[in-house]
Amino acid sequence: MAGMIQEDGSSSVTSPPLQIFSLMSLSPGLGSPYPWLRELKSEERGLCLIHLLLACANHVAAGSIENANIGLEHISHLASPDGDTIQRIAAYFTEALADRMLKGWPGLHKALNSTKISSISEEILVQKLFFQLCPFLKLSYVITNQAIIEAMEGEKMVHIIDLNSFESAQWINLLQSLSARPEGPPHLRITGIHEQKEVLDLMALQLTKEAEKLDIPFQFNPIVSKLENLDFESLRVKTGEALAISSVLQLHTLLAIDDEMVGKSPSASKNTGAVHLQRVLQMNQRTLGEWLEKDLPNVYIPSPDSASASTSSPLSLASSPKMGSFLAALWGLSPKLMVVTEQESNHNCPTLMERVMEALNFYAALFDCLESTLSRASIERQKVEKMLFGEEIKNIIACEGPERKERHEKLEKWVMRLELAGFGRVPLSYQGMLQASRLLVSYGYDGYRMKEENGCLVICWHDRPLFSVSAWRFKRCARCSHILLVMSQSCSLSSSVQSFSGLLDVLFRTCWPQLGIFNTHTNNVLFYGTSKESYFSFRDCLTGDFPSRL
């Protein structure tokens, strides 16, 4: 296949029909595509779809509804949820772009969705299908369970908090492993959190039955709640319990914020420009991932100084009040272990085009995974692509503000965020990595990879990272003043005093929990102290006076 991105980043088309297509694809005067579009070969059709998708997304982002509409019409003649990989992914991306456009007319959007029925049972079913069809969650469960077994060695009372309790297989395997401990099994209590009572009831039944069979003292504490509304008192953490927390694809939902407020800060409004397309995929020839790597047109790509690049600063990590308070509450439970599994992609970019580019790369790999596993006619694959991947794509592209829940971020950001919240990293053990490797080999499909990255596990499709697993423990931070200095150098205090204040609250509670820290801010200067009568300014912290004053 002829490449369409030259070394200098410019777009080139060498095939004659594609050359014509590049000139006419979004011409406003056209009513419908030329007949020869339907007759393109598979690879040429794939390239056309990629170019059209990104050009159409550009028009949607710019508010050019007429041109976007023409682009969607062209794509509709080429995309199909029943076609090859690129046709299927194009179908779901165009649906997401169209949904975003419709939200410009709230009445029309609500009317078209007024009879839509959301079936919780089908959502649970498709999650279980994803668990069965792809090894990603299985690997996460194996690593999590092994880390728990190692951390809880010798403990007589173990309490596990599952932040998304829907798959009993993980904990059944853990029960079986604990029953084989040389010192005997501990008293195990699992707190399961889920929005649906029926899911938790089934989980309790299955786990209780397995525990009785293995003669393990066991309790199940169900909590029907959304994660963002979780009452930490209901967790009933008791003195003497060794606590472990399992979070599988959950924490990113707490990053949802009011994007309009964030957009007003200087860090979110920096000038952005175009840079060369980074080649982030290394996949087998003729996969959708390779098309995306080699043949994407030179559309908007953020510069290193863009708003999304600035999200690596500590202040930007504090922009979600829900996340900050939730991690602070988890830290307050003093867990002996916390294992976090998240998507390894940055779908939390502030601009639409950044999210489209990231999502195309990420979901291209996931669609390729299913392509290698199931036939095109598979009902199970269609359900996973439409009800799981398709809905995630729609949320990433069509939604903004608190409604946008699929705010996936990469491991490097989770590491910084969790360390700032007072957690210390726990390297995954050789035994855990070995078990995961054996599971991957037994799965029998070529293309899945795993690699160790600074003590964490990254699960890939070929060389494309898709999911990360990291382990953490309660740790009292001893370098608060250093973190404050880094924060002050990374961003302007005046840009977001309230966000900065929230992060400082977490840091002070982490380092000096015995003190009742009072804080206020006046004229963009933060004041901290142990009482209203005795306090100091944020500038004092930077001079090094803060630790000595306490």
From TrEMBL:
Name the segments for region: Leucine repeat II (LRII): 202-234
Q: Which residues form the signal peptide?
A: none
Q: From the UniProt entry, list the residue stretches annotated as the region VHIID.
A: 127-192
Protein family membership = Belongs to the GRAS family.
Q: Which UniProt keywords apply?
A: Transcription, Transcription regulation
User: Does the keyword DNA-binding belong to this entry?
Assistant: no
* InterPro entries recorded: TF_GRAS
* Protein's name in the database: Scarecrow-like protein 3
Map motif VHIID onto the chain: 158-162
Per the Swiss-Prot or TrEMBL annotation, the motif LXXLL motif is positioned at: 251-255
Name the species this protein comes from.
Vitis rotundifolia (Muscadine grape)
Q: Which stretches of sequence are listed as region SAW? A: 398-473
